Amino acid sequence: MASITIRNLDETTKQALRERAAHNGHSMEEEARLLLGQAELASEPIEVATSPTPANLSSTNFDASLDGKRILLIISGGIAAYKSLDLIRRLRERGAEVRVIMTEAAQAFITPLSVGALTGDTVFTELLDRNTEHDVGHIRLSREADLIVIAPATANLMAKMAGGLANDLASTTLLATNKPVLIAPAMNPKMWNHPATRRNHRTLLSDGIGFIGPNAGEMAESGEAGFGRMAEPMEIVGAIQAMIGEIEGPKPLSGMRAIVTSGPTHEPIDPVRYIANRSSGKQGHAIAGALAKAGAEVILISGPVNISDPKGCEIIKVQTAREMQKMVETALPADIGVFVAAVADWRTVKSADEKLKKKDGKGPSSLKLTENPDILKGIGHHKLRPKLVVGFAAETEQIEKYGKAKLKRKNADWIVANDVSPETGVMGGDDNSVKLISKEGVETWPKLTKQQVAERLVERMVAFFDVETIEI
Ligand code: C5P
Question: Which pLDDT score is estimated for 25?
């Protein structure tokens, strides 16, 4: 790819580009390329891709209390480690309890003694420490926290996390945790922009890890500047407050149980071939995650997908429609059932035990197919039918008509109908344009990301159960 040179950018525009690039985890050149590409494609306004960074610093109240909040701070090696001392002080001023793990490299920059003096607690450094393993250990360290913060986070620690490595106390604790994690990276700009770090950053973002920074500026190394400076302690405090606020946000569906199906199913033809479709699972997984965030207990029954599991859900992985049906029925009773999976309509009557052979020159084998069970229809008419049953209707034509027919036939409360003709890019893509069909009528939603569709749908569910409660 040819490189691009943009001349005569004024300082303000340059700075804005720099900030956008850092926010999206791109180099300035990548960001400029993206903007140019979007400008060419879009007649609509350009949208800044937002990462799941928790910090909305402009709306953060820095004085908000962190009273009794348990922060596990992991300090890895880097000159920015000295700023972590200030971070500890500021967190404690706001009432947080701070426990610290230091990597070996971190101890070359600051000492456990000075850290311990600020936290008033033991500083943990060893994975296999006879004294602490009996008593605290990495599992307890990872669980007895409301939030884990890594500041500074080196490229090495990010790489270990992205690869799932666990060879010291910090990385083992991070692999063992079920708590939210916030990373404040600090490294040389060349390391931050290296393709390997870009890849790891993307992986961690898609694993649901929060990021604050890095900021642009001068590096400790003389003559080096760019993105790589650790965010300032107060910025990290702001991000922590925003993330804690999110964890403790309203849970309107708490006490409710939801079953969600997602992804395609694979119906075997022989040991190596199967019938499938292009469903990515993105919409179903987003709905499961949004339900969990709203406090519901979520059982996600997913066919084979290549995306990461949404947070806070129990995940059951299946291959075929019949396995999916069995798992859905086992998961009953539930208050909510959302059937997003693109279940294969047919399977072979019997899958071959050995790989089917080509019949040289005699044309292809024919497959004898039989219909798969309709899971949604079965649940819509089940004696343990959830109070709210939602189906999806992926159509390539006459969306509304087929959606309405499905609502009736499957005894669903809502059908979310969408156009999956190839030109829409919905199948496997990140966006969706849907119609919400219910007995009350049809609503056409604007084009939204699958994440936004999930959030809107969950808002509707909250409203549905609010009304139900009032009627009782
Ligand atoms: O009949 P159709 O496949 O178009 O219906 C789509 C809806 O029905 C989706 O909600 C899908 O999850 C569900 N479905 C199902 N079991 C099937 C086929 C579809 O649950 N065998």
Answer: 60
